[in-house]
Amino acid sequence: MPRWRYQAGPTDTMDNRPSTYYQPPFVTKFNRSTRLWNLFGQKKIDLSEASLIEAARAETGLERFGDESFVPPLRALLHSLETEAELNPFGRFNARMRTIRSLKNRLWANACFEAHPEILERRIEAPIMIVGPHRSGTTRLQRMMATDTRLQHLKTWEGFNPAPRPGLPDMGKQLRRDEVKQFLDLGRQIYTGGYIAHPMDADWPEEDMLLLNHSFCGFSVLGMFNIPSYYRWFLEYDKTEVYRYTAKLMKLISWSRGDAGDKRWVLKNPQHMLDLDVLTKVFPDARLVFTHRDPIKTVGSVMSLMWHFAVQHTDLPCRASTREVWMDFCEQAARRAMEQREHIAAAQQMDVHYEEMNRDWRAAMRRIYAFGGMEFTSQVEQAMHDWLDNSEKENLHGGHRYALEDFGTSAAEVDRRMMFVRDRYAIAYEGK
């Protein structure tokens, strides 16, 4: 269970301005107009389970979900959203939209599984899974490895819309991609700071958190909404069926592309730190690459990233609630990963430090490829170099600014809570 240990002191400098101070005109206008319509009993945004499932079925014309392991997580989430999150109208709209999208994808996916049972017979061979704290270089590492055409990766549009659309040309690929492109274009206007911290494009590699979201057990809702009871439930919930369904979606995506059954995946997700036992049960031959970075940097950066999303969904100040969850998440994830790694074969895991990638990424990649049993070819090296050069020229990852003090904490407090992981993996202080 979480241990809330923060206590504000006389030097607390936390930014306590209401979230409305940071909301762009689109969100302000949406909230104002929706509240006006609500006065007349119209435009109520319904977050009831029955309403959401009914909408998904109506929009797809499908009835059967098949695998209904999503129901307990969905109920836990909806309860917390209604009783704790203090959502503004835009927050309710966001929660309804993302929930219906996942339910629709589960309906479409089940239609594919029923029509093509051979999909589930596909194997996922020795996936390379990048696991590490948020903001520790996992995105950079995955996107560099995704330039290797021998590996398959999850594209952003596939993560949001993994299921083919029955009856549409090319399984609805263009429509699914266009929906996500439009969604991301709007997101850059609303969550500008979040997209600066974590740039996204419909065709870029993205983390499999997007697939966990379709089981209502991905960490993204913890960044979107203030839902402490769901967070406590989330930490303790057995996610075996969540991971099994994620594997089904991976097989569906690979099948719909026409990829060879033995083509290896490269994936990444910080959330795996919490559930390595489940991850290795569902993917027993996975090759785990653990990343490490100064916790003072990772904790401050992830709190800022999540706040940029949460601040749009409530009118109340939300820095304190963001700090409470994400300080604890970072600590819980590190402790659980350390403990569970003791039960994973040494040959199945390796460690890479952020500073190592900065200092000599080629040497780091040679180690990773040797660990994964693949040749690090000159063609792959050049493709990675080109990606990195383009990223640096466009400054894709250099515009994020944050301060721990904005969240009422300090480097000393983060260091105190995270010293156990710094000591265990000899993680250096950045800038010292």
Using DSSP, what is the number of strands? 5
Radius of gyration: 21 Å
What oligomerization state is this entry in?
single chain
Proportion of β residues?
5-15%
The biggest beta sheet, please? 5 strands, parallel
Give the count of helical stretches: 19
Q: What sort of overall outline do the alpha carbons produce when their principal axes are compared?
A: globular
Question: Termini, distance in Å?
Answer: 34 Å
Average pLDDT, to the nearest integer? 94
Query: Regions with pLDDT < 50 over 5+ consecutive residues?
Result: 1-11
Helical amount: 40-55%
Series of H and E elements: HHHHEHEHHHHHHHEHEHHEHHHH
**Which sequence of strands runs across the widest sheet?**
2-3-1-4-5
Helix- and strand-based class?
mainly alpha
Architecture overview:
The chain is mostly helical and 432 residues long. Helix content is 54%, strand content 5%. It contains 19 helices and five strands. Helix 2 (49-60) packs across helix 4 (89-115), helix 12 crosses helix 13 and helix 14 (295-310) crosses helix 15. It is globular, with a radius of gyration of 21 Å. The protein starts with 24 loop residues before the first helix and ends in a 7-residue tail after the last helix.
